[in-house]
Fold this protein.
Amino acid sequence: MKEINQEEWREKIASDDNAVILDVRTQQEVEEGYIPNAKNIDIYKAHEFLEELDKLDKSKNYYVYCRSGARSAQACKVMDQKGFHETYNLLGGFSQWEGEKAE
């Protein structure tokens, strides 16, 4: 896992053809807004979260975020243990996101 700020996040995703944005917040949080093109898997639903991770392509580069950066850091650690090669945690999470948002 690499922790990156918003500027690094935007630069990396813009030039990464292998990027997947992963939102690990609850459905209620997602309804308040999200980063466009993000796939949502709620980390609080532990069993479901692990099942969904197993369906993902481990060769992709995952850009992971939550509300503040703590749950996404935890998600990245789990993903790294499961054999994902590239995971990036968004420092500050969605609560500090200044980029494009979808609702």
